[in-house]
Structure formats: C-alpha cells, structure tokens
C-alpha cells in the first residue's frame, strides 16, 4: 500500500469523531468561522444523534466572525451549561432518529 493511502487509512481509523459520548460535552462555535465552518458542528451533531448521545451534548452557537472569537461571557455561559449537565443531568432518552431519515438505518 502506498504511504499516502496508509496515512489516510490511519486517519480514518484513529482520528475521526464518533459521536459516542460517555460524559457531558458542550461545544462552542462561531457562526462565521473562516477556518472551521460551522456546518462541521452540525455534522458532529448528526453523529451524536446516531449514537444516542444527545442527552450528553449541547451546542452553543456564537453569532460572530472569527475562529474561536468568543467573549468571556460566551465561554462562561458554555461552562455554566456544562456544570448544569454534570450536576443536574437529564434522563437519557433515545435520539430522534426519525428526524434524520436520509442517514438513519432504522425504521
């Protein structure tokens, strides 16, 4: 196998997110990030839904331009959400796969 194919295979096997969460996670993203588009966050959210980890994930969207251009209040607000998820967890519930028929393999 050529080196580039080996590297690509290694990335696919070891460096991709799964969406399978075992602890609470809050993700914070700017909507006008010029380096990492915000649609990456939506793709990750789909992975979370497909792995039934929705109760452990909250996405905080910051409507501003720039990569990680958050204010202190944005960061503290996201941290507050995380603390709430840790100390007052919601009951787990199945992910609403029926809302994703184009990617779901279940009926």
How do the strands and helices of this protein lay out in sequence?
Elements: H1 3-14, E1 25-32, H2 39-50, E2 57-65, H3 72-87
Parallel strand pairs: 1-2
Strand order of the largest sheet: 1-2
Q: Which percent range fits the helix content?
A: 25-40%
Which overall shape is indicated by the principal axes computed on the Cα atoms? Answer: flat
Most strands sheet: 2 strands, parallel
- Beta-sheet strand percentage? 15-25%
Q: Tell me the structural class.
A: alpha+beta
Task: Give a verbal description of the structure.
The protein has 107 residues and is an alpha+beta fold. It has one domain (17-99). 37% of the residues lie in helices and 16% in strands. It contains 3 helices and 2 strands; from the N terminus they run H-E-H-E-H. It has a two-stranded parallel sheet with strand order 1-2. The longest helix has 16 residues, at 72-87. The radius of gyration is 16 Å and the shape is flat. The mean pLDDT is 86.
Short description:
Helix content is 37%, strand content 16%.
What key phrases describe this protein's structure?
single chain; 107 residues; alpha+beta; two-stranded parallel ribbon; 37% helix; 16% strand; flat
